[in-house]
């Protein structure tokens, strides 16, 4: 075979002589894998399905493979210390010392799981939480407040109050009428986490939005009235009112 025909995969002589180009050739990228790669453009190595890399010599592992390698496409061969179909579970989890200093021991329970044996007075998955005031004494917080004790390491408990409440133990309802949010001399009535405005004569509240959240203003717009009288009796009939 001469130097010209060496560039071709093979020739067919019927009905016409047709020669198919080789994956490799003098114009292909040097080092391009002869089986896993091919060249359609000069000096460009294109990979077949399941292969990757500049020279198409690296297999594509199973999708989602984390700590594994492959010899053939679609494999996930776990590295030392890892198991699972995706090589995502550590064989000896206690080797990374996940338990805190407040744990007596780390026990491997299989399938990459572990249990920390907590010292007396400590709790949590890694024994990182102390049985502090919120656990030992119970939450002192009222009205839905959350008890905080810095994972048990605080000397005493504190409270984070729900909206609308204040005080050391969230025992006081915040007066949403102080300062008065009602305009035009309206009277404010505190209602739980909100308030209600009662407007003076000549004004009327928009009752479709009569209840508001704290810090929102409620206007009492002017109520105008058109008086209609019967001419014979001078009695008022069908008064018409509107807001302005």
Automatic annotation (TrEMBL):
What keywords is this UniProt entry annotated with? Cytoplasm, Disulfide bond, EGF-like domain, Glycoprotein, Membrane, Repeat, Signal, Transmembrane, Transmembrane helix
Q: For this protein, what is any one GO molecular function term?
A: calcium ion binding
The record's annotation in SUPFAM superfamilies points to: EGF/Laminin
Q: What residue stretch is flagged as signal peptide?
A: 1-25
Tell me the ranges covered by the EGF-like domain, including all copies.
24-57, 90-128, 130-171, 173-209
Query: How is it placed in the membrane, per its record?
Result: Single-pass type I membrane protein
Q: Write out the transmembrane intervals.
A: none
What residue ranges carry the coiled-coil annotation? none
Q: Which domain of life is it from?
A: Eukaryota
- Cysteine pairs forming cystine bridges in this chain are 47-56, 99-116, 118-127, 161-170
Listed GO biological process terms: establishment or maintenance of epithelial cell apical/basal polarity; heterophilic cell-cell adhesion via plasma membrane cell adhesion molecules
Its localization reads: Cytoplasm; Membrane
This protein's GO cellular component annotations are:
cytoplasm; plasma membrane; protein-containing complex
Q: What is its main location?
A: cytoplasm
Q: Cross-referenced CDD domains, in alphabetical order? A: EGF_CA (cd00054)
What's the name of the protein?
Protein delta homolog 1
């Amino acid at each position: 075979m001469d130097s010209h025909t060496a560039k071709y995969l093979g020739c067919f002589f019927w009905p016409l002589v047709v020669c198919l180009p080789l994956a490799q050739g003098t114009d292909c990228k040097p080092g391009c894998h002869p089986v896993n790669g091919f060249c359609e453009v000069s000096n460009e190595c294109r990979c077949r399905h399941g292969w990757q890399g500049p020279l198409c010599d690296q297999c594509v592992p199973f999708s989602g493979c984390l700590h594994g390698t492959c010899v053939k496409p679609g494999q996930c061969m776990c590295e030392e210390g890892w198991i699972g179909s995706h090589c995502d579970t550590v064989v000896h989890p206690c080797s990374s010392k996940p338990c805190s200093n407040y744990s007596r021991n780390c026990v491997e329970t299989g399938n990459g799981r572990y249990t920390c044996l907590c010292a007396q007075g400590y709790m949590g998955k890694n024994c990182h939480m102390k049985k502090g005031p919120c656990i030992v004494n119970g939450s002192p917080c009222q009205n839905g407040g959350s008890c905080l004790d810095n994972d048990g390491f605080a000397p005493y408990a504190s409270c984070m109050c729900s909206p609308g409440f204040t005080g050391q133990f969230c025992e006081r309802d915040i007066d949403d009428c102080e300062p008065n949010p009602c305009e035009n001399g309206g009277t404010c009535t505190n209602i739980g986490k909100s308030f209600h405005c009662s407007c003076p004569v000549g004004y009327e509240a928009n009752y479709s939005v009569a209840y508001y959240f704290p810090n929102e203003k409620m206007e009492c717009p002017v109520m105008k009235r058109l008086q209609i009288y019967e001419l014979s009796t001078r009695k008022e009939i069908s008064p018409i009112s509107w807001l302005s």
